[in-house]
Amino acid sequence: MLQQILRDMYIDPELLAELNEEQKQILFYKMREEQLRRWKEREEKARMEEAMLRKTARRKQSNGKHVQWLRGKDGEVWVWVMGEAPGDKPYEQISEELIAERARQQAQKEAEELWRQKEAEITKKFRDAMAQEKARIVAEKWKIEIEDRKAAKLEEEKIQEELKKREEEERQKGEEQIRQQEEIRAKELYLSLKQAQQHSQHSDDDQEWEEQLRRSKAADEERSHKARRARDEYRRQSLRAIQKGRVAGLSNLFQGTSLNNDQEIKLNNNSASPLLNIWERPSRPFSRDVIIRWFKEEQIPRRAGFERNTNRIAQWFHGIISRQEAEELLMNKSEGTFLVRVSEKIWGYALSYRQQSGFKHFLVDASGDFYSFLGVDPNRHATLTDLIDFHKEETITSSGGELLLEPCGQQKNPPDYSPLFE
After folding, report:
1. SS3 content of the chain, % helix, strand, coil (to 5)
2. What is the 3-state secondary structure of 101-128?
3. What is the C-alpha separation between 22 and 29, in angstroms, rounded?
4. Rounded to whole angstroms, how far apart are CA atoms 338 and 361?
5. Angle (CA) 140 141 146, round 5°
6. Which residues are within 8 A (CB) of 377 and not within 5 positions of it... i.e. 6 or more apart?
7. Angle at 292 between CA 287 and CA 296, to 5 degrees
8. How far apart are CA 265 and CA 259, in angstroms?
9. Distances (CA, A) of 198 to 54, 94, 204
10. What's the confidence (pLDDT) of residue 267?
């Protein structure tokens, strides 16, 4: 299963959900190692192809058209750097002129907007004043005799001239204020843009790069730490397993085990398939019927779920039950209580474990000719019972310290594993 995941570089989301956090981290580390291996392989292949192309190109150039670089007096390839050739402005001067032009354009744009607002205010102010004055004259003067209308007209014209003169003075004053503000604003924008450019060149890029580098190094160190801890755990458990003699060749223990007649007939009937109905295991489980057949065809002959040296079903063994059902069975149990259920996600099992603060679930890969935890315990066990007995004395993970202390039995009658042995 692990080899298939690394080959495809993909894990089904439902299968990923079955893994605990440490299993996910180890699986990520292994996938990352595989990515690096493939990348190095591609880089080496690309390098060789590029060398071959260069060699072929040189061969073709010797027989056909080719590009010849312009060379200077010193015989080297001629290069022109903007701002350094004779007659070019220095780069600093070009930069200064660009910043000054940007500041001037921005200040001019702001000044035009201020002048439009100011002009609208002045026009409205004097238009309203003229209208009010005209209304007053009409109300007061034009109501008198016809002879006084000429005097009223002259007075109105005089007032209008006075108002226009004041309006023109106000406009000139406003234009002068806007011009002064434009000059001040242009200087402020120039200094601001200059400081922003310097700050951006000297601090922003470096600070962002340093922050990204720091986060990347922290993530790499964390993954390296977890991988190193996993390797140490692997060596420790491997050595322990070799000392106990429980990793390789344990199936020999069962060659001398005798079954009673009824049980032996049942096992033989389950393992013997008709010639016309040969079992071919799909790439992954897709129905309960397929899982049941897989268990009967491949697991019963390997005594999966049986106690050692007996014909009884182990107390910790359960059938095809869900994660939620397993947690309900373990809900009121003490820490260290466990059960093993047939998985619906992989060809194998799921070990559900009760810890103090909740539950943990570990996938057991049984797709090959051995049993091992997916991504956690690298040891390969000959039987499912060997794996359980091994972790009654050795922790599953060094960080979690999970020891299998108490099996969780059945609460239903008939047991939930009944369909597997019918």
Report:
1. 60, 10, 30
2. HHHHHHHHHHHHHHHHHHHHHHHHHHHH
3. 11
4. 10
5. 140
6. 237, 387, 391, 396
7. 150
8. 9
9. 42, 15, 10
10. 47
Counting beta carbons within 10 angstroms of the beta carbon of residue 107, is it exposed (0 to 12), middle (13 to 18) or buried (19 or more)? Answer: buried
Element (H, E) at 100: helix 91-140
Please answer whether residues 296 and 319 qualify as being in contact, where contact means their C-beta atoms are separated by less than 8 angstroms: no
Q: Which of 399, 342, 396 is nearest to 372 (CA)?
A: 396
Contacts for 298 with CB less than 8 Å, ≥ 6 apart: 279, 281
Close Cβ partners of 35 (under 8 Å, ≥ 6 residues apart): 9
Tokens at 256, concatenated? 């001398």
CA 125 – CA 28 distance, rounded (Å): 74
Quick one: which H or E segment has residue 407? Answer: strand 406-407
Element (H, E) at 247: none
Dist CA 386 CA 246 (whole Å)? 7
- Tell me the β-bridge partners of 361: 352
Residue 198 CB neighbour total at 10 angstroms: 10
Residue recorded with tokens 């000044």: 111
* 316 in Cβ contact with 395 (< 8 Å): no
Burial per residue of 49-88, b for 16 or more beta-carbon CB atoms within 10 angstroms, e otherwise: eeeeeeeeeeeeeeeeeeeeeeeeeeeeeeeeeeeeeeee
Q: What is the pLDDT of residue 34?
A: 83
User: Residues of the chain whose pLDDT is less than 50?
Assistant: 246-276
DSSP 157-211: HHHHHHHHHHHHHHHHHHHHHHHHHHHHHHHHHHHHHHHHHHHIIIIIHHHHHHH
Structural contact between residues 359 and 327, judged by C-beta atoms closer than 8 angstroms: yes
Counted residue by residue, the chain has a size of 422
pLDDT value, residue 340: 95
